[in-house]
Amino acid sequence: MSNLVVWILCIIYFICLSSLTSTANDDQDLFAFEPVRAQSLNVGTAKPRKRYLLYSINPGEGFNLRRDVYMRVASLVKMMNDKEDWTLVLPPWGPLYHWKTEGLKRDKYLWKTFFDIQSLNLYVPVIEFEDFLTENGPVIDDVLYLQHFEGDRFTGHFEEKIEETECIEAPRYSKHADGKYRGWFWGYERVAAKNFHCLSAQGFAAIVIPALRSNYSKARSVLIDRAETLLHNRYGDEDYWQARRSLRFAKPLIDMGDAFRRDRLDSTDDGDITTLHPDWRDHQVKPGHAIGGPYIAAHLRRRDFLYGHRDDVPSINRTALQLLPLIEKYKAKKVFIASDAPDEEFEELKLYIPIAIRYVPPKEILKKYGDGGVAIIDQWICAHARYFVGTSVSTFSFRIQEEREILGFDPDVTFNRLCGDKQESCEQPARWKIRY
């Protein structure tokens, strides 16, 4: 082939490639970073640029609701990664309203303190916020502050909608002299944002995808604040349970819970038939597979529930009256109590049920893992009981019920709740059964 022919072919090749690239850039419906599909030119496929999705939650929300919001956002990232390359940035924990231990309501607890990061990464790519700072630096490109539509009231017709609007309430961010926005950012003073936007939103998590792919497509890092505004894309389906199954506890906390089960409750995974496969993707059991340890467990929510849900929360006496028949029915050697009740209330319960027991963490464990770590140990112990009964509308109880579904307990010994003093009987929890 002559040099002239080679030059002509090269010119034609670059003209075609330039035309394809220009067309993609001019189309507003395409991502600015979407790779050119050029199989016919045999030049390969470009890799999408890496982007970071951060999220934050209303400060008043508790530990277990935050775990639920994580699943909503993780599912969103999984959906977007069908075409893009997003990494979910895990927001540091604390201080939370329900963490009451004096002197330990600190912030900046990393996710690895409470959860198995390697397990999370088997569902979607995740990194700690501090690792994000190392990779990206302390400046976030866009903050999207979600809010409900002004004046909207649910009328029986649900409609998904989202739009950038004026801020209805003053957000927790302000613009400084350098043009950047500063706010809480989990207690990291150096962190700031280039741009800030208020978005009124109503719908499932996927409703933000078009905005992330168009209006904010140039941003490498995007923070969605008030992420609890977004609903689960598909609550209770296989994808929901994949996200939930990946949310395994940190091994040190599991080990401490297992030690308490073994030493105080005569409970082991082999005897209880509750052994988990090391990889959650390979763990699948039928309902009724697990037996549980020779104890029953109860989550008895007190404190703010005594005011916010007074009709559904029983007195200590009424609690005992409900637990005593269960002790006899399941021939329980112990009754494990997970509760935020003060010591005097627990001692009152022990007058009725001498075999009642609770987990009291050593000071060094409480100092290292805080109230969040103690809550996880409580949940882990409750999850392995032969029978579990929780508190109405408590996300703490919900998470235990999910854990028991994963372990393979019969729904009859999982989805139960205590009745209030004025309730002869009460509606029991909805049975959100695991799906694989």
Automatic annotation (TrEMBL):
<comment type="similarity">
    <text>Belongs to the glycosyltransferase 68 family.</text>
</comment>
<dbReference type="InterPro" id="IPR019378">
    <property type="entry name" value="GDP-Fuc_O-FucTrfase"/>
</dbReference>
<dbReference type="Pfam" id="PF10250">
    <property type="entry name" value="O-FucT"/>
</dbReference>
<keyword id="KW-0294">Fucose metabolism</keyword>
<keyword id="KW-0732">Signal</keyword>
<protein>
    <recommendedName>
        <fullName>GDP-fucose protein O-fucosyltransferase 2</fullName>
        <ecNumber>2.4.1.221</ecNumber>
    </recommendedName>
</protein>
<keyword id="KW-0256">Endoplasmic reticulum</keyword>
<feature type="signal peptide">
    <location>
        <begin position="1"/>
        <end position="23"/>
    </location>
</feature>
<keyword id="KW-0808">Transferase</keyword>
<comment type="pathway">
    <text>Protein modification; protein glycosylation.</text>
</comment>
<keyword id="KW-0119">Carbohydrate metabolism</keyword>
<dbReference type="InterPro" id="IPR045130">
    <property type="entry name" value="OFUT2-like"/>
</dbReference>
